[in-house]
Structure formats: structure tokens, C-alpha cells
Amino acid sequence: MSVTMPRSALADTLLDRLTTAYPEAADPERAAGMRAYMKDVAPFLGLTTPVRRALSRTVLAGTPRPDEADCTALALRCWELPEREYAYFAVDYLRRHVARCSSGFLPVVRHLVSTVPWWDTVDLLAAHVAGALVAADPELKRDMDAWIEDDDLWIARAALLHQLRFKEATDTERLFGYCLRQAGHPDFFVRKAVGWCLREYAKTAPDAVRAFVTAHRDRLSPLSVREALKHVGT
């Protein structure tokens, strides 16, 4: 499903401020190191997290709370900018204001997850944005059922991780079912996500996770098993 760019005066203001403040603090030497660390997924300005967050507070000062159109426009426009820090700004903004968005925002999240994807943006979008939307509208579980089947490994990873913060509210049947669906995936990032979501749920239900891993150890990769049982033992 394609997404459209809505008009947003708030996004106009934020982008004007952002594209002035961030480049003024750029550190080219640090940017080169950050780009290398992130496997050349995108160029960087070289802003450390504390510097970036301080600049972001200045950018946001005095601005009103957004509506869904503002969130959509801000995120899509940040994603169009090459330097990765703009995507980080958008992710932070969506995390803060996801409650202002309806279920109809999920296609925007999917677009962000699948565009210039890497773990640094995908994981936060999955756990804090997609997960929050699903928690607010359980009908979106069916969308997650489609995501877990997707050929795009990052969409599948997002489906695995969307319940990461659900704790007792975790849909255990879906969690375990998703893990089995992707248990044999050849990519490291999917196998790691299988283990990670199990490890996180083990903080809430360790016996259930141990029993699941014991029953399906032959299907799960060694990486997934190791991650799943990291803090609960065999």
C-alpha cells in the first residue's frame, strides 16, 4: 500500500528548524565512523545522541502537539533526507506522539520500516510505534499476521518484535507462532529477532518460554535458542 504526503504547516516548521540546527553541529570525522559502524546504510552528520537530543529540544520548542497528518508528513519528509539523524528525529517524534495516530497510520510505519531499513530504525518503530498501534487496536493483529509472512526480512523482524513491550498482555499464541514461522529463516537479523522476542517474554513467563524452546529446539536456530534462554537457563 502506497502512502501519500499530507500537507502540514507543523512539519514545514520542524523541517526548516531541523535542517538548520542539525547541519550546524555536524562533525564529519565522527560521521565517517558512524557510517562505517552502521555498515554504510546511510550517510551521517556525526551527531552524538546527547547533542542530537539537545538540538531536537530546541527544534521542538514552542510547537504544538501534532495530529496524524503532521506525524505522517514529518516522518516521510525526514525519511527523504539522506543523513540518518533525521530518521532518528522522526522515530523519536513518533514514539512520543503515537497515541495521536489512528490504526490508519500503520501503512506509514510499514513504509518507514521497509525504506532504507536497518536495525537502528526498524527495532524502535516495531516495538514503540507498530506495537503501540496494535495494542490500541487489536484488529491490527491481522496486519501483523501478514507482516510475519512478508518476503522483506525487516517487515518480518518488525512483526516478531512488535510485542516486545507487551509483557502480560502478550498474545502468546501469536508470539510462539511467529517464532516458528520464521525459525528457519536464513538471515541473522530474523533469527536474532526470534531469540530476542522470546528472551523478552521470558522476563514475564520464563516457564512458558523454556517449554516452548524445549519442544521446538530442533526447529529453532542455535542463535535463537541461545538468545531465548539467555537469562532463564535451559
Task: Outline the structure in words.
It contains 13 helices and no strands. It has 234 residues and is an all-alpha fold. It has a domain at 9-168: Leucine-rich Repeat Variant, CATH 1.25.10.90. The N and C termini lie far apart (43 Å).
**How many strands in all?**
0
β-strand percent reads under 5%
How large is the count of helical segments? 13
Silhouette: globular
How many angstroms separate the termini? 43 Å
Largest sheet: none
Question: Which secondary-structure class do the elements indicate?
Answer: mainly alpha
Low-confidence stretches: none
- Which fold name is given in CATH as the topology of the domain at 9-168? Leucine-rich Repeat Variant
Q: What pattern of helices and strands is seen along the backbone?
A: HHHHHHHHHHHHH
CATH architecture of the domain at 9-168: Alpha Horseshoe
Please bin the fraction of helical residues: 55-70%
- What is the CATH class of the domain at 9-168? Mainly Alpha
Let me know the average pLDDT. Answer: 97
Instruction: Tell me the radius of gyration.
Output: 19 Å
